[in-house]
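Reopening: Carbohydrate ABC transporter permease still failing for me.
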Amino acid sequence: METVNITPAEKTAAVPAVRKKRKWTADHWLAAAFLAPSVILIFLFVYGFIAWTGYVSLSNWNSLVPDWSFAGLKNYLYLFHDFRFQADLRNTLVFTVLFIAAVIVLGQLLAILLDQKLRGESLFRNIFFFPMALSFVVTGVVWQWLFNPSTGVNLFLKPLGLDSKWYTDTTILGGFHWGKIEFGIPVAIIAVVVAAVWQMTGFAVAMYLAGLRAIPDEVREAARMDGATEFQLYWKIILPLLRPITVSVIIIMAHISLKIFDLIYAMTGPGANFVTDVPGVYMFETTFRGNYYANGAAIAIVMLLSVAIFIVPYLISSRKGGS
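Support: Ran it again with your exact input. Result attached.
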C-alpha cells in the first residue's frame, strides 16, 4: 500500500478555520447601554402597541365597557361591507394616484427650471420650500378659505361665468357601481389634492434638484455633441438617471397619502356622502367619538398594512442594495 505523506502546511490547510469569538470591550458595553433604552421603548411603544391594536381588532370591544371575547375577522368583514369604508378606500386610491403624479411632475419641472442657473434662484427656492414649513392643519385651514364656494377664488371666477363647488361637490367623475358605492373620481377630492400638492411639491423639488446637481456636466455635453436635443437629453438621459430619486419620492408621498388625516380633518372633514373621507378620519371618529374600539383598531391595522405594502419592499431592496 502506498503511503501518502502530508506536510504540516497541508494539515493546517485541511483543518477548517475556527472563527474566534470577538470579546466585548468596554466601548461595546457602553454603546449597548446607550442604545438599550431606545430599543426597549421602541419595542414597547411601537411594536407593542401595534400588537395590542391587532389584538383589540380581533375582539368584541365596541362599547365603553371592554369585551375581550374573540371575534375573529368579524370587524374586518364589517368594514369591507361598509359603505363609508368602501368610499374611504376609493378616495384614498384616487387621492394617492393624483397626489403622487402631480408632485412628481411638478417637482421635476420646477427642479429643472431651478437648475438653469436663473437669476434669483435662491428666492424661488425659498418660495417653493416655504409650504413645507407649515403643518397640514394650517394648510387645510388656508385652502378651506380659498376654496370656500361663497368666497375665496370663486369671487374671481364668478365674473367669468365659473362657479365651482370645490370640496362641497358630490359629483363622481367616470363613476360606475362597485360594491355599495359609485367608483370614480370624486370632484371634491381634487381640491384636497391641490392643497397637498402645494405643500409637498417643495420636498420633491429639493430631491430632484440635488439629483440634477450631482449629474456631471460632461454627461450633458457628451449628449449634446452626439446631436441630442434638450428634450432628448432630459427624456432619455437625465430623467432615467433620476429614477432612484423618483422611487424615493413615490414611497415617501405614498406613505403620507395613505395615512393622511390632519389635512382632510382641517379642510373638509368626511364631506357630504363621504366624498372626501379617508380611513384616518373614519378611524378617529369610530374610535374616539363612537367608542367602537374594535372597529377602529381594525381600520388602523388596514391602514398599517396598506402603508407596509409600499414601505417594506422598498426597505428590503434598499438593504440589499447597500449590502
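The domain at 83-287 is CATH 1.10.3720.10 (MetI-like fold). If you still see a failure, please send the error message rather than a screenshot.
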